[in-house]
Amino acid sequence: MALRAEPPDGGWGWMVVLSAFFQSALVFGVLRSSGVFFVEFVAAFEEPAARVSWIASIGIAVQQFGSPVGSALSTKFGPRPVVMAGGILAALGMLLAAFATSLTHLYLSIGLLSGSGWALTFTPTLACLSRYFSRRRSLATGLALTGVGLSSFAFAPLFQWLLSQYAWRGALLLVSALSLHLVACGALLRPLSLAEDPVVGGPGAQLANLLHHGPFLRYTVALTLINTGYFIPYVHLVAHLQDLDWDPLPAAFLLSVAAISDPVGRVASGWLGDAVPGPVARLLMLWTTLTGVILALYPVARVPTALVALTVAYGFTSGALTPVAFSVLPELVGTGKIYCGLGLVQMVESIGGLLGAPLSGYLRDVTGTYTASFVVAGAFLLAGSGVLITLPHSFCLSAPTSKLQDPVTEALDTKVPLPREGLGED
Protein backbone atom coordinates (compact mmCIF):
# COMPACT_ATOMS: atom_id res chain seq x y z
CA MET A 1 0.00 0.00 0.00
CA ALA A 2 1.31 3.40 -0.99
CA LEU A 3 1.07 6.11 1.69
CA ARG A 4 -1.07 9.01 0.50
CA ALA A 5 -1.40 12.40 2.15
CA GLU A 6 -5.16 12.54 1.57
CA PRO A 7 -7.95 10.59 -0.19
CA PRO A 8 -7.35 10.61 -3.99
CA ASP A 9 -11.01 11.43 -4.83
CA GLY A 10 -10.90 9.10 -7.81
CA GLY A 11 -8.44 6.71 -9.44
CA TRP A 12 -8.90 3.16 -8.24
CA GLY A 13 -11.61 4.54 -5.96
CA TRP A 14 -14.06 4.25 -8.86
CA MET A 15 -13.36 0.51 -9.01
CA VAL A 16 -14.15 0.38 -5.30
CA VAL A 17 -17.42 2.19 -6.11
CA LEU A 18 -18.16 -0.49 -8.73
CA SER A 19 -17.45 -3.24 -6.21
CA ALA A 20 -19.67 -1.54 -3.60
CA PHE A 21 -22.42 -1.17 -6.20
CA PHE A 22 -22.65 -4.90 -6.82
CA GLN A 23 -22.16 -5.76 -3.15
CA SER A 24 -25.00 -3.50 -2.04
CA ALA A 25 -27.16 -5.16 -4.69
CA LEU A 26 -26.31 -8.68 -3.56
CA VAL A 27 -26.72 -7.91 0.14
CA PHE A 28 -29.53 -5.41 0.59
CA GLY A 29 -31.22 -6.17 -2.71
CA VAL A 30 -31.74 -9.72 -1.46
CA LEU A 31 -32.83 -8.49 1.97
CA ARG A 32 -35.30 -5.99 0.55
CA SER A 33 -36.85 -8.66 -1.68
CA SER A 34 -37.23 -11.13 1.17
CA GLY A 35 -40.86 -10.10 1.54
CA VAL A 36 -41.56 -12.21 -1.55
CA PHE A 37 -40.53 -15.32 0.41
CA PHE A 38 -42.40 -14.18 3.53
CA VAL A 39 -45.84 -15.42 2.45
CA GLU A 40 -44.35 -18.71 1.22
CA PHE A 41 -42.67 -19.38 4.57
CA VAL A 42 -45.87 -18.61 6.48
CA ALA A 43 -47.76 -21.14 4.36
CA ALA A 44 -45.01 -23.79 4.26
CA PHE A 45 -44.32 -23.90 8.00
CA GLU A 46 -47.78 -22.81 9.21
CA GLU A 47 -46.29 -20.25 11.56
CA PRO A 48 -47.57 -16.77 12.57
CA ALA A 49 -46.21 -13.67 10.86
CA ALA A 50 -44.24 -12.56 13.93
CA ARG A 51 -42.14 -15.74 14.00
CA VAL A 52 -41.47 -15.73 10.25
CA SER A 53 -40.41 -12.07 10.49
CA TRP A 54 -37.45 -13.12 12.63
CA ILE A 55 -35.72 -14.61 9.57
CA ALA A 56 -35.07 -11.24 7.94
CA SER A 57 -34.58 -9.51 11.28
CA ILE A 58 -31.89 -11.94 12.40
CA GLY A 59 -30.12 -11.53 9.07
CA ILE A 60 -30.17 -7.73 9.34
CA ALA A 61 -29.12 -7.82 13.00
CA VAL A 62 -26.25 -10.28 12.44
CA GLN A 63 -25.04 -8.26 9.45
CA GLN A 64 -24.91 -5.13 11.57
CA PHE A 65 -23.93 -6.65 14.91
CA GLY A 66 -21.05 -8.51 13.25
CA SER A 67 -19.79 -5.41 11.46
CA PRO A 68 -17.09 -4.65 14.09
CA VAL A 69 -15.66 -8.11 13.41
CA GLY A 70 -15.46 -7.33 9.70
CA SER A 71 -13.93 -3.94 10.49
CA ALA A 72 -11.30 -5.41 12.85
CA LEU A 73 -10.37 -8.15 10.38
CA SER A 74 -10.11 -5.59 7.58
CA THR A 75 -7.82 -3.43 9.70
CA LYS A 76 -5.52 -6.40 10.25
CA PHE A 77 -5.69 -8.27 6.93
CA GLY A 78 -7.13 -5.70 4.53
CA PRO A 79 -10.68 -5.64 3.13
CA ARG A 80 -10.07 -7.92 0.13
CA PRO A 81 -9.72 -11.36 1.81
CA VAL A 82 -12.36 -10.50 4.41
CA VAL A 83 -14.98 -9.59 1.81
CA MET A 84 -14.20 -12.66 -0.30
CA ALA A 85 -14.67 -14.92 2.73
CA GLY A 86 -17.94 -13.15 3.50
CA GLY A 87 -19.21 -13.88 0.00
CA ILE A 88 -18.63 -17.60 0.52
CA LEU A 89 -20.53 -17.55 3.83
CA ALA A 90 -23.47 -15.62 2.33
CA ALA A 91 -23.83 -18.09 -0.53
CA LEU A 92 -23.48 -21.09 1.79
CA GLY A 93 -26.27 -19.82 4.06
CA MET A 94 -28.72 -19.51 1.16
CA LEU A 95 -27.71 -22.96 -0.10
CA LEU A 96 -28.43 -24.60 3.26
CA ALA A 97 -31.72 -22.68 3.59
CA ALA A 98 -33.04 -24.51 0.53
CA PHE A 99 -33.01 -27.74 2.58
CA ALA A 100 -34.70 -26.28 5.69
CA THR A 101 -37.46 -28.27 7.38
CA SER A 102 -38.30 -25.74 10.12
CA LEU A 103 -38.07 -22.04 10.88
CA THR A 104 -35.12 -22.75 13.15
CA HIS A 105 -33.14 -23.96 10.15
CA LEU A 106 -33.93 -20.71 8.35
CA TYR A 107 -32.92 -18.69 11.42
CA LEU A 108 -29.53 -20.42 11.38
CA SER A 109 -28.91 -20.52 7.63
CA ILE A 110 -30.26 -17.22 6.29
CA GLY A 111 -30.21 -15.31 9.57
CA LEU A 112 -26.94 -16.42 11.15
CA LEU A 113 -24.75 -17.80 8.35
CA SER A 114 -25.72 -15.49 5.47
CA GLY A 115 -25.95 -12.60 7.94
CA SER A 116 -22.35 -13.28 9.02
CA GLY A 117 -21.27 -13.22 5.39
CA TRP A 118 -23.02 -9.91 4.84
CA ALA A 119 -21.27 -8.52 7.94
CA LEU A 120 -17.90 -9.33 6.40
CA THR A 121 -18.74 -7.71 3.06
CA PHE A 122 -20.78 -4.54 3.39
CA THR A 123 -19.09 -2.53 6.17
CA PRO A 124 -15.45 -3.10 5.08
CA THR A 125 -16.36 -2.10 1.53
CA LEU A 126 -18.14 1.12 2.56
CA ALA A 127 -15.26 2.02 4.89
CA CYS A 128 -12.75 1.37 2.11
CA LEU A 129 -14.77 3.60 -0.24
CA SER A 130 -14.90 6.44 2.32
CA ARG A 131 -11.10 6.43 2.50
CA TYR A 132 -10.80 6.93 -1.28
CA PHE A 133 -13.00 10.06 -1.41
CA SER A 134 -13.25 13.37 0.43
CA ARG A 135 -14.80 16.16 -1.67
CA ARG A 136 -16.94 13.71 -3.68
CA ARG A 137 -17.65 11.27 -0.86
CA SER A 138 -21.44 11.67 -0.79
CA LEU A 139 -21.73 11.30 -4.57
CA ALA A 140 -19.47 8.23 -4.62
CA THR A 141 -21.46 6.66 -1.79
CA GLY A 142 -24.73 7.47 -3.53
CA LEU A 143 -23.55 5.87 -6.78
CA ALA A 144 -22.34 2.78 -4.93
CA LEU A 145 -25.61 2.35 -3.07
CA THR A 146 -27.78 2.64 -6.19
CA GLY A 147 -27.17 -1.08 -6.49
CA VAL A 148 -29.69 -1.56 -3.69
CA GLY A 149 -32.52 0.10 -5.59
CA LEU A 150 -31.73 -1.37 -8.99
CA SER A 151 -31.45 -4.88 -7.58
CA SER A 152 -34.70 -4.45 -5.65
CA PHE A 153 -36.35 -3.49 -8.94
CA ALA A 154 -35.03 -6.66 -10.57
CA PHE A 155 -35.05 -9.12 -7.68
CA ALA A 156 -38.63 -8.73 -6.39
CA PRO A 157 -40.38 -9.83 -9.60
CA LEU A 158 -37.53 -12.23 -10.41
CA PHE A 159 -37.87 -14.01 -7.06
CA GLN A 160 -41.65 -14.12 -7.46
CA TRP A 161 -41.21 -15.72 -10.89
CA LEU A 162 -38.67 -18.19 -9.50
CA LEU A 163 -41.15 -19.11 -6.76
CA SER A 164 -43.83 -19.81 -9.36
CA GLN A 165 -41.44 -21.96 -11.42
CA TYR A 166 -39.24 -23.75 -8.87
CA ALA A 167 -40.99 -23.23 -5.50
CA TRP A 168 -39.16 -21.58 -2.61
CA ARG A 169 -36.46 -24.24 -2.28
CA GLY A 170 -35.34 -23.97 -5.90
CA ALA A 171 -35.51 -20.19 -5.73
CA LEU A 172 -33.16 -20.16 -2.72
CA LEU A 173 -30.65 -22.31 -4.60
CA LEU A 174 -30.51 -19.71 -7.36
CA VAL A 175 -30.22 -16.87 -4.81
CA SER A 176 -27.23 -18.76 -3.40
CA ALA A 177 -25.60 -18.75 -6.83
CA LEU A 178 -26.17 -15.00 -7.11
CA SER A 179 -24.64 -14.41 -3.68
CA LEU A 180 -21.44 -16.18 -4.68
CA HIS A 181 -20.61 -13.22 -6.92
CA LEU A 182 -19.68 -11.32 -3.75
CA VAL A 183 -16.34 -13.12 -3.94
CA ALA A 184 -15.53 -11.42 -7.25
CA CYS A 185 -16.56 -8.06 -5.79
CA GLY A 186 -14.13 -8.50 -2.91
CA ALA A 187 -11.27 -9.11 -5.34
CA LEU A 188 -11.65 -5.54 -6.66
CA LEU A 189 -10.86 -3.91 -3.31
CA ARG A 190 -7.42 -2.37 -2.85
CA PRO A 191 -6.49 -1.08 0.65
CA LEU A 192 -5.33 2.50 0.99
CA SER A 193 -3.00 3.93 3.66
CA LEU A 194 -3.47 7.58 4.55
CA ALA A 195 -1.14 9.93 6.43
CA GLU A 196 -3.85 10.40 9.06
CA ASP A 197 -3.76 6.72 10.09
CA PRO A 198 -0.83 6.85 12.58
CA VAL A 199 -2.38 9.87 14.30
CA VAL A 200 -5.63 8.22 15.34
CA GLY A 201 -3.98 5.32 17.21
CA GLY A 202 -4.79 1.62 17.26
CA PRO A 203 -8.23 -0.02 17.40
CA GLY A 204 -8.32 0.12 21.23
CA ALA A 205 -7.53 3.83 21.34
CA GLN A 206 -10.06 4.52 18.58
CA LEU A 207 -12.78 2.60 20.42
CA ALA A 208 -12.13 4.45 23.69
CA ASN A 209 -12.17 7.72 21.78
CA LEU A 210 -15.50 6.98 20.10
CA LEU A 211 -17.20 5.83 23.31
CA HIS A 212 -16.44 9.24 24.86
CA HIS A 213 -17.47 11.20 21.77
CA GLY A 214 -20.91 12.74 22.43
CA PRO A 215 -21.94 13.58 18.83
CA PHE A 216 -20.93 10.11 17.66
CA LEU A 217 -23.03 8.47 20.39
CA ARG A 218 -26.07 10.61 19.55
CA TYR A 219 -25.63 9.85 15.86
CA THR A 220 -25.57 6.14 16.69
CA VAL A 221 -28.82 6.41 18.68
CA ALA A 222 -30.46 8.27 15.78
CA LEU A 223 -29.49 5.59 13.25
CA THR A 224 -30.75 2.86 15.59
CA LEU A 225 -34.18 4.50 15.73
CA ILE A 226 -34.19 4.99 11.96
CA ASN A 227 -33.17 1.40 11.36
CA THR A 228 -36.08 0.11 13.46
CA GLY A 229 -38.65 1.37 10.98
CA TYR A 230 -36.65 1.59 7.77
CA PHE A 231 -37.02 -1.99 6.52
CA ILE A 232 -40.71 -2.52 7.40
CA PRO A 233 -42.11 -1.96 3.86
CA TYR A 234 -39.61 -4.40 2.37
CA VAL A 235 -40.67 -7.10 4.82
CA HIS A 236 -44.42 -6.51 5.15
CA LEU A 237 -45.63 -4.41 2.21
CA VAL A 238 -46.39 -7.47 0.05
CA ALA A 239 -48.37 -9.08 2.88
CA HIS A 240 -50.17 -5.77 3.56
CA LEU A 241 -51.22 -5.54 -0.08
CA GLN A 242 -52.46 -9.13 -0.04
CA ASP A 243 -54.59 -8.19 2.96
CA LEU A 244 -56.09 -5.57 0.62
CA ASP A 245 -56.90 -8.38 -1.86
CA TRP A 246 -53.99 -7.76 -4.22
CA ASP A 247 -52.65 -10.70 -6.21
CA PRO A 248 -49.11 -11.83 -5.25
CA LEU A 249 -47.39 -10.81 -8.49
CA PRO A 250 -48.71 -7.20 -8.62
CA ALA A 251 -47.96 -6.88 -4.90
CA ALA A 252 -44.35 -7.95 -5.51
CA PHE A 253 -44.16 -5.59 -8.47
CA LEU A 254 -45.01 -2.64 -6.21
CA LEU A 255 -41.70 -3.24 -4.43
CA SER A 256 -40.07 -2.77 -7.83
CA VAL A 257 -41.84 0.60 -8.13
CA ALA A 258 -39.99 1.74 -5.00
CA ALA A 259 -36.79 0.41 -6.52
CA ILE A 260 -37.22 2.66 -9.56
CA SER A 261 -37.14 5.89 -7.55
CA ASP A 262 -34.64 4.57 -4.98
CA PRO A 263 -31.47 4.99 -7.12
CA VAL A 264 -32.67 8.41 -8.29
CA GLY A 265 -32.94 9.48 -4.66
CA ARG A 266 -29.50 8.11 -3.81
CA VAL A 267 -27.70 9.88 -6.65
CA ALA A 268 -29.61 13.14 -6.15
CA SER A 269 -28.94 13.11 -2.41
CA GLY A 270 -25.26 12.26 -2.95
CA TRP A 271 -24.88 15.17 -5.36
CA LEU A 272 -26.67 17.54 -2.98
CA GLY A 273 -24.53 16.35 -0.09
CA ASP A 274 -21.39 17.48 -1.92
CA ALA A 275 -22.86 20.60 -3.55
CA VAL A 276 -24.76 22.18 -0.64
CA PRO A 277 -22.49 23.90 1.92
CA GLY A 278 -22.65 22.87 5.53
CA PRO A 279 -22.89 19.49 7.27
CA VAL A 280 -24.74 16.73 5.43
CA ALA A 281 -26.56 15.86 8.67
CA ARG A 282 -29.17 18.48 7.71
CA LEU A 283 -30.00 16.54 4.54
CA LEU A 284 -30.20 13.35 6.58
CA MET A 285 -32.75 15.01 8.89
CA LEU A 286 -34.83 16.10 5.89
CA TRP A 287 -34.96 12.71 4.19
CA THR A 288 -35.58 10.88 7.47
CA THR A 289 -38.53 13.11 8.36
CA LEU A 290 -40.12 12.70 4.94
CA THR A 291 -39.68 8.93 5.03
CA GLY A 292 -41.31 8.72 8.46
CA VAL A 293 -44.32 10.73 7.31
CA ILE A 294 -44.75 8.55 4.21
CA LEU A 295 -44.70 5.35 6.26
CA ALA A 296 -47.35 6.70 8.61
CA LEU A 297 -49.58 7.50 5.61
CA TYR A 298 -49.53 3.94 4.18
CA PRO A 299 -52.59 2.71 6.16
CA VAL A 300 -54.61 5.66 4.80
CA ALA A 301 -53.94 4.73 1.17
CA ARG A 302 -56.40 2.19 -0.18
CA VAL A 303 -56.73 2.79 -3.92
CA PRO A 304 -53.91 1.57 -6.21
CA THR A 305 -53.03 5.08 -7.41
CA ALA A 306 -52.39 6.34 -3.87
CA LEU A 307 -50.38 3.24 -2.97
CA VAL A 308 -48.19 3.60 -6.07
CA ALA A 309 -47.63 7.31 -5.37
CA LEU A 310 -46.65 6.62 -1.77
CA THR A 311 -44.33 3.81 -2.83
CA VAL A 312 -42.57 6.01 -5.40
CA ALA A 313 -42.12 8.72 -2.75
CA TYR A 314 -40.92 6.18 -0.19
CA GLY A 315 -38.38 4.76 -2.63
CA PHE A 316 -36.95 8.22 -3.31
CA THR A 317 -36.71 9.45 0.29
CA SER A 318 -35.54 6.15 1.80
CA GLY A 319 -32.91 5.89 -0.91
CA ALA A 320 -31.88 9.52 -0.43
CA LEU A 321 -31.19 9.19 3.30
CA THR A 322 -28.74 6.28 2.87
CA PRO A 323 -25.68 7.94 1.23
CA VAL A 324 -25.80 10.98 3.51
CA ALA A 325 -26.14 8.70 6.55
CA PHE A 326 -22.79 7.14 5.69
CA SER A 327 -21.26 10.52 4.80
CA VAL A 328 -22.06 12.05 8.19
CA LEU A 329 -19.75 9.63 10.00
CA PRO A 330 -16.42 10.77 8.45
CA GLU A 331 -17.40 14.35 9.25
CA LEU A 332 -17.85 13.41 12.89
CA VAL A 333 -14.86 11.13 13.51
CA GLY A 334 -12.50 11.52 10.51
CA THR A 335 -11.42 9.01 7.86
CA GLY A 336 -8.71 7.55 10.08
CA LYS A 337 -11.32 6.07 12.41
CA ILE A 338 -13.86 5.15 9.75
CA TYR A 339 -13.36 1.36 9.99
CA CYS A 340 -13.87 1.32 13.76
CA GLY A 341 -16.59 3.97 13.73
CA LEU A 342 -18.68 2.40 10.98
CA GLY A 343 -18.39 -1.05 12.51
CA LEU A 344 -19.50 0.24 15.92
CA VAL A 345 -22.46 2.13 14.42
CA GLN A 346 -23.59 -0.91 12.48
CA MET A 347 -23.35 -3.08 15.60
CA VAL A 348 -25.47 -0.79 17.78
CA GLU A 349 -28.10 -0.07 15.12
CA SER A 350 -28.54 -3.83 14.69
CA ILE A 351 -30.85 -3.56 17.72
CA GLY A 352 -33.29 -1.69 15.53
CA GLY A 353 -32.92 -4.15 12.69
CA LEU A 354 -33.51 -7.05 15.07
CA LEU A 355 -36.66 -5.66 16.67
CA GLY A 356 -38.31 -3.74 13.83
CA ALA A 357 -39.82 -6.48 11.67
CA PRO A 358 -40.92 -8.77 14.56
CA LEU A 359 -42.57 -5.80 16.28
CA SER A 360 -44.39 -5.04 13.05
CA GLY A 361 -45.46 -8.68 12.69
CA TYR A 362 -46.59 -8.77 16.32
CA LEU A 363 -48.74 -5.67 15.84
CA ARG A 364 -50.26 -7.35 12.76
CA ASP A 365 -51.09 -10.50 14.74
CA VAL A 366 -52.64 -8.49 17.59
CA THR A 367 -54.65 -5.99 15.53
CA GLY A 368 -55.37 -8.05 12.44
CA THR A 369 -54.06 -5.34 10.08
CA TYR A 370 -50.77 -3.60 9.29
CA THR A 371 -52.09 -0.13 10.22
CA ALA A 372 -50.31 0.06 13.57
CA SER A 373 -47.20 -1.53 12.05
CA PHE A 374 -46.68 1.26 9.51
CA VAL A 375 -47.62 4.06 11.91
CA VAL A 376 -45.14 2.85 14.53
CA ALA A 377 -42.44 2.42 11.87
CA GLY A 378 -42.92 6.05 10.80
CA ALA A 379 -42.77 7.19 14.42
CA PHE A 380 -39.36 5.55 14.87
CA LEU A 381 -37.96 7.46 11.89
CA LEU A 382 -39.37 10.77 13.14
CA ALA A 383 -37.79 10.12 16.55
CA GLY A 384 -34.44 9.48 14.87
CA SER A 385 -34.74 12.75 12.98
CA GLY A 386 -35.33 14.52 16.29
CA VAL A 387 -32.09 13.13 17.72
CA LEU A 388 -30.16 14.28 14.61
CA ILE A 389 -31.07 17.88 15.45
CA THR A 390 -28.68 17.67 18.42
CA LEU A 391 -25.60 17.07 16.24
CA PRO A 392 -23.04 19.93 16.06
CA HIS A 393 -23.58 22.71 13.50
CA SER A 394 -26.96 21.32 12.43
CA PHE A 395 -28.23 24.81 11.60
CA CYS A 396 -25.01 26.39 10.31
CA LEU A 397 -24.60 27.28 6.65
CA SER A 398 -20.98 26.20 6.70
CA ALA A 399 -19.10 23.94 9.07
CA PRO A 400 -15.54 22.87 8.34
CA THR A 401 -15.06 19.16 8.62
CA SER A 402 -12.22 19.51 11.07
CA LYS A 403 -14.50 21.32 13.52
CA LEU A 404 -16.87 18.37 13.70
CA GLN A 405 -14.24 15.99 15.02
CA ASP A 406 -13.53 15.25 18.63
CA PRO A 407 -10.72 16.92 20.56
CA VAL A 408 -8.86 13.64 21.16
CA THR A 409 -7.48 13.73 17.61
CA GLU A 410 -5.92 17.08 18.33
CA ALA A 411 -4.30 15.65 21.46
CA LEU A 412 -2.91 12.76 19.47
CA ASP A 413 -1.59 15.25 16.95
CA THR A 414 0.60 16.84 19.62
CA LYS A 415 1.78 13.54 21.09
CA VAL A 416 2.76 11.90 17.80
CA PRO A 417 5.11 14.25 15.91
CA LEU A 418 4.19 14.00 12.26
CA PRO A 419 4.56 16.61 9.50
CA ARG A 420 1.43 18.72 9.30
CA GLU A 421 1.49 18.74 5.49
CA GLY A 422 -0.92 16.22 4.01
CA LEU A 423 -2.97 15.46 7.10
CA GLY A 424 -5.85 17.32 5.50
CA GLU A 425 -8.96 18.86 6.93
CA ASP A 426 -10.48 15.41 7.54
TrEMBL record:
Domain Major facilitator superfamily (MFS) profile, residue spans: 13-402
Record InterPro entries: MFS, MFS_dom, MFS_MCT_13, MFS_trans_sf, Proton-linked_MCT
Cellular component per GO, a single term: plasma membrane
Cellular compartment(s): Cell membrane; Golgi apparatus membrane
MF GO annotations: monocarboxylic acid transmembrane transporter activity; symporter activity
Membrane-spanning parts: 12-31, 82-100, 106-127, 139-160, 166-189, 216-237, 280-300, 306-326, 338-357, 369-391
Keyword terms of this UniProt record: Cell membrane, Golgi apparatus, Membrane, Symport, Transmembrane, Transmembrane helix, Transport
Membrane topology: Multi-pass membrane protein
Pfam families: MFS_1
Main location group: membrane
Primary role: Proton-linked monocarboxylate transporter. May catalyze the transport of monocarboxylates across the plasma membrane.
Protein family: Belongs to the major facilitator superfamily. Monocarboxylate porter (TC 2.A.1.13) family.
Protein name as catalogued: Monocarboxylate transporter 13
Gene: SLC16A13
